[in-house]
Protein backbone atom coordinates (compact mmCIF):
# COMPACT_ATOMS: atom_id res chain seq x y z
CA UNK A 1 0.00 0.00 0.00
CA UNK A 2 1.39 3.40 -0.96
CA UNK A 3 0.56 6.51 1.06
CA UNK A 4 0.56 9.87 -0.69
CA UNK A 5 1.53 12.85 1.43
CA UNK A 6 0.51 16.31 0.24
CA UNK A 7 3.08 18.93 1.10
CA UNK A 8 1.89 22.52 0.85
CA UNK A 9 4.62 24.90 -0.25
CA UNK A 10 4.59 28.54 0.98
CA UNK A 11 5.24 29.51 -2.67
CA UNK A 12 2.14 27.74 -3.95
CA UNK A 13 -1.37 29.15 -3.85
CA UNK A 14 -3.88 27.01 -1.99
CA UNK A 15 -7.63 27.48 -2.07
CA UNK A 16 -9.32 28.55 1.17
CA UNK A 17 -11.30 25.83 2.90
CA UNK A 18 -12.98 24.94 6.17
CA UNK A 19 -10.32 26.76 8.15
CA UNK A 20 -12.34 29.91 7.38
CA UNK A 21 -14.93 28.69 9.87
CA UNK A 22 -12.60 27.63 12.67
CA UNK A 23 -12.09 30.26 15.38
CA UNK A 24 -10.01 30.23 18.50
CA UNK A 25 -11.20 32.03 21.64
CA UNK A 26 -10.79 35.81 21.46
CA UNK A 27 -8.66 35.84 24.60
CA UNK A 28 -5.95 33.21 25.16
CA UNK A 29 -7.15 30.97 27.96
CA UNK A 30 -10.59 32.57 27.83
CA UNK A 31 -13.98 30.88 27.38
CA UNK A 32 -14.12 28.53 24.41
CA UNK A 33 -17.46 29.99 23.30
CA UNK A 34 -16.19 33.58 23.12
CA UNK A 35 -15.07 33.64 19.49
CA UNK A 36 -15.24 36.05 16.58
CA UNK A 37 -18.72 34.90 15.41
CA UNK A 38 -20.11 35.47 18.91
CA UNK A 39 -18.71 39.00 19.01
CA UNK A 40 -20.10 39.70 15.54
CA UNK A 41 -23.52 38.41 16.63
CA UNK A 42 -23.43 40.68 19.68
CA UNK A 43 -22.39 43.62 17.52
CA UNK A 44 -25.24 42.81 15.13
CA UNK A 45 -27.72 42.93 18.01
CA UNK A 46 -26.38 46.31 19.10
CA UNK A 47 -26.70 47.62 15.54
CA UNK A 48 -30.30 46.35 15.22
CA UNK A 49 -31.29 47.89 18.55
CA UNK A 50 -29.55 51.17 17.72
CA UNK A 51 -31.26 51.33 14.31
CA UNK A 52 -34.72 50.79 15.81
CA UNK A 53 -34.02 53.24 18.63
CA UNK A 54 -32.81 55.93 16.24
CA UNK A 55 -35.78 55.33 13.94
CA UNK A 56 -38.65 55.03 16.41
CA UNK A 57 -37.63 56.58 19.76
CA UNK A 58 -38.83 60.06 18.73
CA UNK A 59 -40.92 59.63 15.57
CA UNK A 60 -41.87 62.66 13.53
CA UNK A 61 -44.94 63.15 11.35
CA UNK A 62 -42.65 63.65 8.36
CA UNK A 63 -39.98 60.94 8.60
CA UNK A 64 -36.38 61.86 7.92
CA UNK A 65 -32.98 60.23 8.26
CA UNK A 66 -32.98 57.07 10.34
CA UNK A 67 -36.75 57.22 10.78
CA UNK A 68 -37.18 56.96 7.01
CA UNK A 69 -34.91 53.92 6.88
CA UNK A 70 -36.70 52.32 9.82
CA UNK A 71 -40.13 52.91 8.30
CA UNK A 72 -39.05 51.46 4.96
CA UNK A 73 -37.88 48.31 6.76
CA UNK A 74 -41.08 48.17 8.83
CA UNK A 75 -43.37 48.62 5.83
CA UNK A 76 -41.45 46.04 3.82
CA UNK A 77 -41.79 43.41 6.54
CA UNK A 78 -45.43 44.29 7.18
CA UNK A 79 -46.55 44.30 3.54
CA UNK A 80 -44.35 41.50 2.16
CA UNK A 81 -44.10 39.11 5.10
CA UNK A 82 -46.61 39.71 7.91
CA UNK A 83 -49.85 40.56 6.13
CA UNK A 84 -49.66 37.91 3.37
CA UNK A 85 -49.18 35.19 5.99
CA UNK A 86 -50.84 36.41 9.18
CA UNK A 87 -53.60 38.68 7.91
CA UNK A 88 -55.45 40.26 10.85
CA UNK A 89 -52.82 38.97 13.30
CA UNK A 90 -49.94 40.67 11.48
CA UNK A 91 -49.67 43.73 13.75
CA UNK A 92 -49.33 41.54 16.84
CA UNK A 93 -46.29 39.81 15.37
CA UNK A 94 -44.62 42.72 13.62
CA UNK A 95 -42.09 43.30 16.39
CA UNK A 96 -40.93 39.71 16.28
CA UNK A 97 -40.82 39.45 12.48
CA UNK A 98 -39.03 42.80 12.11
CA UNK A 99 -36.46 41.65 14.67
CA UNK A 100 -35.94 38.36 12.82
CA UNK A 101 -35.53 40.12 9.47
CA UNK A 102 -33.12 42.81 10.71
CA UNK A 103 -31.07 40.34 12.75
CA UNK A 104 -30.55 37.92 9.87
CA UNK A 105 -29.91 40.74 7.39
CA UNK A 106 -27.23 42.32 9.59
CA UNK A 107 -25.72 38.89 10.28
CA UNK A 108 -25.45 38.29 6.55
CA UNK A 109 -24.11 41.73 5.63
CA UNK A 110 -21.28 41.27 8.11
CA UNK A 111 -19.78 39.00 5.47
CA UNK A 112 -18.96 41.96 3.20
CA UNK A 113 -17.97 44.51 5.86
CA UNK A 114 -14.21 45.18 5.69
CA UNK A 115 -12.16 43.84 8.61
CA UNK A 116 -15.14 41.77 9.81
CA UNK A 117 -15.92 39.73 6.70
CA UNK A 118 -17.78 36.84 8.27
CA UNK A 119 -21.52 36.23 7.85
CA UNK A 120 -22.75 35.01 11.22
CA UNK A 121 -25.33 32.70 9.62
CA UNK A 122 -22.46 30.76 7.99
CA UNK A 123 -21.93 29.27 11.46
CA UNK A 124 -24.77 26.75 11.74
CA UNK A 125 -25.43 27.30 15.45
CA UNK A 126 -26.79 30.81 14.96
CA UNK A 127 -29.54 30.18 12.37
CA UNK A 128 -30.37 26.97 14.26
CA UNK A 129 -31.11 28.94 17.44
CA UNK A 130 -33.42 31.34 15.56
CA UNK A 131 -35.17 28.46 13.78
CA UNK A 132 -35.67 26.60 17.08
CA UNK A 133 -37.19 29.75 18.58
CA UNK A 134 -39.69 30.01 15.72
CA UNK A 135 -40.35 26.26 15.93
CA UNK A 136 -41.10 26.47 19.65
CA UNK A 137 -43.49 29.39 19.10
CA UNK A 138 -45.28 27.48 16.33
CA UNK A 139 -45.83 24.41 18.49
CA UNK A 140 -46.87 26.50 21.50
CA UNK A 141 -49.42 28.48 19.50
CA UNK A 142 -50.85 25.35 17.89
CA UNK A 143 -51.34 23.54 21.22
CA UNK A 144 -52.57 26.66 23.04
CA UNK A 145 -55.21 27.60 20.48
CA UNK A 146 -56.35 24.15 19.39
CA UNK A 147 -55.21 21.64 21.99
CA UNK A 148 -52.94 18.72 21.19
CA UNK A 149 -55.60 16.63 19.46
CA UNK A 150 -57.12 19.56 17.60
CA UNK A 151 -53.72 20.74 16.42
CA UNK A 152 -52.73 17.30 15.15
CA UNK A 153 -56.14 16.82 13.53
CA UNK A 154 -55.86 20.16 11.74
CA UNK A 155 -52.45 19.22 10.38
CA UNK A 156 -53.46 15.78 9.16
CA UNK A 157 -56.96 16.53 7.86
CA UNK A 158 -57.21 16.83 4.10
CA UNK A 159 -60.72 17.30 2.64
CA UNK A 160 -61.70 14.60 0.19
CA UNK A 161 -58.90 12.22 1.12
CA UNK A 162 -60.11 8.60 1.49
CA UNK A 163 -59.77 7.12 4.95
CA UNK A 164 -57.40 4.36 3.85
CA UNK A 165 -54.95 6.94 2.42
CA UNK A 166 -54.33 8.56 5.82
CA UNK A 167 -52.03 5.67 6.71
CA UNK A 168 -49.63 6.99 4.07
CA UNK A 169 -50.43 10.69 4.17
CA UNK A 170 -50.46 11.31 7.94
CA UNK A 171 -46.86 10.18 8.69
CA UNK A 172 -45.51 12.23 5.77
CA UNK A 173 -47.31 15.46 6.67
CA UNK A 174 -46.48 15.10 10.37
CA UNK A 175 -42.81 14.56 9.52
CA UNK A 176 -42.90 17.64 7.29
CA UNK A 177 -44.48 19.84 9.97
CA UNK A 178 -42.47 18.66 12.97
CA UNK A 179 -39.11 17.64 11.47
CA UNK A 180 -38.46 18.71 7.88
CA UNK A 181 -39.74 22.27 8.29
CA UNK A 182 -37.24 22.94 11.07
CA UNK A 183 -34.28 21.77 9.02
CA UNK A 184 -35.32 23.55 5.84
CA UNK A 185 -35.74 26.76 7.82
CA UNK A 186 -32.16 27.05 9.06
CA UNK A 187 -30.24 24.88 6.58
CA UNK A 188 -31.24 27.06 3.61
CA UNK A 189 -29.85 30.17 5.30
CA UNK A 190 -26.74 28.43 6.59
CA UNK A 191 -25.89 26.74 3.28
CA UNK A 192 -26.22 29.93 1.22
CA UNK A 193 -24.08 31.99 3.59
CA UNK A 194 -21.52 29.20 3.93
CA UNK A 195 -21.17 28.80 0.15
CA UNK A 196 -21.12 32.54 -0.47
CA UNK A 197 -18.34 33.06 2.06
CA UNK A 198 -16.27 30.31 0.46
CA UNK A 199 -16.71 31.81 -3.03
CA UNK A 200 -15.77 35.33 -1.95
CA UNK A 201 -12.73 34.01 -0.11
CA UNK A 202 -11.71 31.98 -3.16
CA UNK A 203 -11.79 34.84 -5.69
CA UNK A 204 -10.27 37.41 -3.33
CA UNK A 205 -7.49 34.94 -2.52
CA UNK A 206 -6.77 34.45 -6.23
CA UNK A 207 -6.61 38.21 -6.78
CA UNK A 208 -4.37 38.88 -3.81
CA UNK A 209 -1.99 36.00 -4.48
CA UNK A 210 -1.39 36.57 -8.18
CA UNK A 211 -1.23 40.37 -7.97
CA UNK A 212 0.61 40.93 -4.70
CA UNK A 213 2.16 37.76 -3.35
CA UNK A 214 3.47 36.18 -6.58
CA UNK A 215 3.15 38.78 -9.33
CA UNK A 216 4.23 37.37 -12.71
CA UNK A 217 3.37 38.37 -16.30
CA UNK A 218 1.36 35.19 -16.75
CA UNK A 219 -0.36 35.36 -13.37
CA UNK A 220 -1.29 39.05 -13.56
CA UNK A 221 -4.27 38.37 -15.81
CA UNK A 222 -5.52 35.68 -13.46
CA UNK A 223 -5.12 38.07 -10.54
CA UNK A 224 -7.11 40.79 -12.31
CA UNK A 225 -9.81 38.24 -13.09
CA UNK A 226 -9.88 37.28 -9.40
CA UNK A 227 -10.35 40.92 -8.37
CA UNK A 228 -13.12 41.49 -10.92
CA UNK A 229 -14.91 38.31 -9.87
CA UNK A 230 -14.61 39.37 -6.23
CA UNK A 231 -16.39 42.63 -7.04
CA UNK A 232 -19.10 40.89 -9.06
CA UNK A 233 -19.60 38.14 -6.47
CA UNK A 234 -19.74 40.69 -3.64
CA UNK A 235 -22.61 42.50 -5.35
CA UNK A 236 -24.36 39.19 -6.04
CA UNK A 237 -23.74 38.00 -2.49
CA UNK A 238 -25.33 41.16 -1.06
CA UNK A 239 -28.45 40.38 -3.09
CA UNK A 240 -28.45 36.81 -1.77
CA UNK A 241 -27.93 38.07 1.77
CA UNK A 242 -31.01 40.27 1.53
CA UNK A 243 -33.01 37.49 -0.17
CA UNK A 244 -32.13 34.94 2.52
CA UNK A 245 -33.10 37.35 5.31
CA UNK A 246 -36.43 37.87 3.56
CA UNK A 247 -37.01 34.12 3.07
CA UNK A 248 -36.08 33.29 6.65
CA UNK A 249 -38.49 35.91 8.02
CA UNK A 250 -41.20 34.87 5.56
CA UNK A 251 -40.95 31.23 6.66
CA UNK A 252 -41.11 32.42 10.28
CA UNK A 253 -44.36 34.21 9.45
CA UNK A 254 -45.74 31.12 7.70
CA UNK A 255 -44.88 28.86 10.64
CA UNK A 256 -46.44 31.25 13.16
CA UNK A 257 -49.58 31.41 11.01
CA UNK A 258 -49.73 27.60 10.88
CA UNK A 259 -49.67 27.47 14.68
CA UNK A 260 -52.40 30.10 15.01
CA UNK A 261 -54.65 28.42 12.45
CA UNK A 262 -53.84 24.86 13.45
CA UNK A 263 -53.10 23.76 9.90
CA UNK A 264 -50.02 22.74 7.94
Automatic annotation (TrEMBL):
Main location: membrane
InterPro entries xref list: ATP_synth_F0_asu, ATP_synth_F0_asu_bact/mt, F0_ATP_A_sf
Transmembrane segments: 38-57, 93-116, 122-143, 189-211, 218-236, 242-260
Location relative to the cell: Cell membrane; Membrane
UniProt GO MF annotations: proton-transporting ATP synthase activity, rotational mechanism
Superkingdom field: Bacteria
Any one cellular-component term (Gene Ontology): proton-transporting ATP synthase complex
Record bears the keyword Ion transport: yes
Protein topology in the membrane: Multi-pass membrane protein
Keywords: ATP synthesis, Cell membrane, CF(0), Hydrogen ion transport, Ion transport, Membrane, Transmembrane, Transmembrane helix, Transport
Keyword Ion transport: yes
Gene3D superfamilies reported in the protein's UniProt record: ATP synthase, F0 complex, subunit A (1.20.120.220)
HAMAP family according to UniProt: ATP_synth_a_bact
Record-stated family: Belongs to the ATPase A chain family.
PANTHER family in the record: ATP SYNTHASE SUBUNIT A
Function, as annotated: Key component of the proton channel; it plays a direct role in the translocation of protons across the membrane.
Protein name: ATP synthase subunit a
Organism, as annotated: Nonomuraea jabiensis
Lineage summary: Bacteria, Bacillati, Actinomycetota, Actinomycetes, Streptosporangiales
Gene: atpB
Amino acid sequence: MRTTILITSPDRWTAPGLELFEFAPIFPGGPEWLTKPVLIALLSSVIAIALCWAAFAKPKIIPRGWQSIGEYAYLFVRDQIARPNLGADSDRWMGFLLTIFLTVLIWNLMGVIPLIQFPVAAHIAFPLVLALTVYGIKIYLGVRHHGVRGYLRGIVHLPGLPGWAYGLYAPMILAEVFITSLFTHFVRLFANMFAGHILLAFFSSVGFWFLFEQLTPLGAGLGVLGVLMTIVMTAFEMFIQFLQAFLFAMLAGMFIASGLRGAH
